[in-house]
Amino acid sequence: DVQLQESGPGLVKPSQSLSLTCSVTGYSITSGYYWNWIRQFPGNKLEWMGYISYDGSNNYNPSLKNRISITRDTSKNQFFLKLNSVTTEDTATYYCARDPDGYYFDYWGQGTTLTVSS
Amino acid sequence: DIQMTQSPASLSASVGETVTITCRASENIYSYLAWYQQKQGKSPQLLVYNAKTLAEGVPSRFSGSGSGTQFSLKINSLQPEDFGSYYCQHHYGTPYTFGGGTKLEIK
Predict the structure, then answer these.
(1) In this structure, are residues B90 and B97 in contact, taking their beta carbons and an 8 Å threshold?
(2) Which comes out higher in pLDDT, residue B78 or B106?
(3) Residues in contact with A29: Cβ distance below 8 Å, sequence separation at least 6, in sequence order
(4) Residue A78 — very low, low, confident or very high, per pLDDT cuts 50/70/90?
(5) Distance from A17 to chain B by nearest Cα, in Å?
């Protein structure tokens, strides 16, 4: 069965960069599909952040402008989120999720909570 | 960006009742709509995609309908495990956006 699991530092200081890892088991991220990052803010609003596709191409939410980068390590079947210049408004639970058709999310990780605070 | 508006924001119902949650898109999204259920402390789970197609393993008491800008999720004969929060999400091009959620509570 496909499983996704996020990992990250838990706490980041303002102006620093956050880096999160999504480890995928049960399916090769180069075989197909789109591999996404989605976050949920306190208050429960959900925001799609972007994806890396099976062929390595990216698509990002314009709201994140030039702060976001999603990369991968195919040898470890992992993909990564990097968000630069974080503020307290980036405090959220971050999920990685699989998109089978370029449209919706059928498998999600359990989420990792990230707090931005000095 | 396409704005997704859900109503009601919260809903109280009893086991066995039928409830309907609605979602409105700010522009025509055809049938490119998904619904998710989220339990407290858990990740969202896909229920419906393409407005009316049930995801694998989703009970038939759930049904989705609508097209264009107006959509609904209907739950027949509520079960205890159905209580939680529900979100719609358009999948008509990026950026994908979600509705604000409907919290379904036990009466």
Answers:
(1) yes
(2) B78
(3) A35, A52, A54, A72, A74, A77, A78, A79
(4) very high
(5) 23
